[in-house]
Amino acid sequence: MDITPLHSSSTLPLLLLLFSVSLFPNWVSSLGINYGQIANNLPTPDAVVPLVKSIGATRIKLYDADPRVLKAFANTGVEFIVGLGNEYLGKMRDPKQAQDWVKTNVQCHLPATKITCIAVGNEVLTLNDSILSSNLLPAMENVHTALVNLNLDKQVVITTAHNLGILETSYPPSAGAFRKDLTQRLTCILDFHSKTGSPFLINAYPYFAYKSNPKQVSIDFVLFESDSGITDAVSGLHYGNMFHAQIDAVHSAMEKLGYKKVCLQISETGWPSKGDSDEAGATVDNAKKYNANLLKLIAQKKGTPMRPNLDLNIYVFALFNENMKPGPSSERNFGLFKPDGTPAYNLGFNVTVSVGSNTTTSTSGGSGGLSAPGNSSDGYLSITSDTERILLHQTLSFWSMLVSTILAAFLL
């Protein structure tokens, strides 16, 4: 089945993005970016291409397989992770439907568009939906089998993204362990990654740790600006920032299940530039600090204290602010750019924007990850699922399924 977003014309002008110089300094290389489209004021994909090139992004993660985007980026060399939404996991239990989906949404764009990965579902295991959870691995396996049948499995891998709510223990990092109720499913998923050579994806957001407990969590520690950091008393490893500590907590959890060699990568991380009055830390200044320091970390190409040589393959969330996302204000303000192509805050950008033709409306796209800390003695790293953001994902899945049902009835 061809799963594509709804679009409608708008009287707003199309933004032709013209750039006088590269937006990011030369030291930023191999940048990954999440391209969400839950907005009615974004530029067309054709207009986004020069923006992506100008920031030096070589990798894009989509939350669907929007053919407009994939066609726009044909022959650019940009690598894509395409998404297969949660609402379609049940259908993917049918091998024929899985193969049809791959043919329609992936194979037809190759090799012009460099699709290297399919993310089957997003943050499924913490949605407390037993049917979705039971469908996840069979869907991953069937989509992988479809790739094998089409001789695409050597160039496209299968994965799924998790939030840090899958952890039961996360502090200190060496004590990291998965939730007991999710251990069996995660073991099977990790076994799939081990057999197919695909990465285990994590959405890691130190912002939510600070938002949950700003009086106890050090803002410098979450913004990569701590002078002292913390030392794991068990491993003896020193952590100068929460981002690395969160990642190594997952590494520890994977090791405890015997999957030390499965590659862990970061599919989402970012910081909002605006929030509601009760959203501590959601400011332009903090977003600028977090993402500027994150870009420096990416440029250094260093791993974590536990895995110093690991390429984390980080994808920043997100390319644009998305004005139609539900939830608190922060959800609509994670973008590095405003919809008109101007920077949301100064990261050393130098942009000339010219206005000319139409924008489009899209109801598909991505949402930020779920990673919220619970209370702990130090306030740093005890991470549990965030009820508010889980409800947001459930709402998005509901509306997506409703739109699909209406479309199916209309086409009949």
TrEMBL record:
EC number, as in UniProt: 3.2.1.39
InterPro entries tied to this protein: GH (IPR017853), Glyco_hydro_17 (IPR000490), Glyco_hydro_17_plant (IPR044965)
Highest taxon of the lineage: Eukaryota
Record key words, sorted: Glycosidase, Hydrolase, Signal
GO molecular function, one term: glucan endo-1,3-beta-D-glucosidase activity
Coiled-coil stretches: none
Signal sequence region: 1-30
Entries under Pfam families matching the protein: Glyco_hydro_17
Catalytic class of the enzyme: hydrolase
Catalytic activity: Hydrolysis of (1->3)-beta-D-glucosidic linkages in (1->3)-beta-D-glucans
Stated family: Belongs to the glycosyl hydrolase 17 family.
PANTHER family membership: GLUCAN ENDO-1,3-BETA-GLUCOSIDASE BG1-RELATED-RELATED
Entry protein name: glucan endo-1,3-beta-D-glucosidase
